Amino acid sequence: MAVAVLGVIGAATLPVIHAAADGYASAVRARRVCEQASTTLDQCVRLLRDLSGDADTGVLEIAEASSTQIIFDDGRGLDFTGGTLSLIESPTESTVLLTGLEAFSLACLAADGTTDCADDLEQTQRFRVSITLEGFVLSAVALPRAVSIPSGEEAP
What is the pTM assigned to this prediction? Predict the structure, then answer.
């Protein structure tokens, strides 16, 4: 009789224990993915924030840019190809930041924060970066430190 009671109790609690274990596994996965994506996004934003430019004109030193790649005049940049995001350290050297990305997007924006400057890179004043990894989407806006008010103009 005691064995039957223990069997009923075990059968009743098994789904609860199983659900708790599934919840824990999902939370661990979410934390791992968010940490990877967040670290990578921070590296991208740091690179974009440190972009140099002409303090007098406010023009950033961007050689080329697209929605998946940006190259600076000094050869550094970012490149997303085939699910892999790489940090370009020089024209001949790059480091993989993260693999398995579902999507990466980079937008060069004007001072208003909405106008896309892909066709006129000299107007770029900020960047919007987005990373999608295992269904998680993280986005950020980077404001380069080199951008300043052109000389001869007063701050508002």
Answer: 0.76
